[in-house]
Amino acid sequence: VLVKMADEEFEFKPFSVTYKLITFALSVGMIYPNPKTEKWRLASIPILVASIMPLALMIFYDMYKSWMVKDIVNIIRHSTVVGPFLGGFFKMILMYHKRIQAKEILDEIDRDHDLFNECADIYKDIARAAIKNSQVYSERGWAITVSTCVMTFPVMAIALNIYNFTFKSEPEKYMIHDLVIPETESELRFETPYFEVIYYYHYIV
């Protein structure tokens, strides 16, 4: 208890306290190098990869069909979604593989913050300004940017569906990411129950 009280008196706190948004994002993305969660992360990664595989395979199949007919626009449309999404899973796997090195980086930051507490005021001012700059731009600014990009597709789909079913006599349906079911007519994707199943699957994933 005394150690905890002493730590709370320090101006410069550990990484997890100084950058709470980044720590939260790393934890949600299962890339935060916490030794206590290693087994849970190792068990969760294959489950998450398996959950996204049906969607990824359908997208890749549609991209292949688009390539055969030179539909570059549709390939780009799919790439803007599946690229970053699969990149996130690759990063999850990579960060687990490099978890020891990642933990060493965070430990180094914690040691630096401990040293800042012992520095002269002029150096504390420099450290304080650098941390504040990182919190504003690298943490909050990045969090807003990523959240906006991630929420654009579901928010637009929800808004368009609400508007169409509220104000139009013959409403159109909008998917979060428009995707044709393999080897079927393109309009089948808007039929029940395919539309509802894929819509909620996209939303959850």
Automatic annotation (TrEMBL):
Keywords: Membrane, Transmembrane, Transmembrane helix. It comes from Mythimna loreyi. It comes from the Eukaryota. The chain crosses the membrane at residues 12-32, 44-63, 75-94, 142-163. This is OR20.
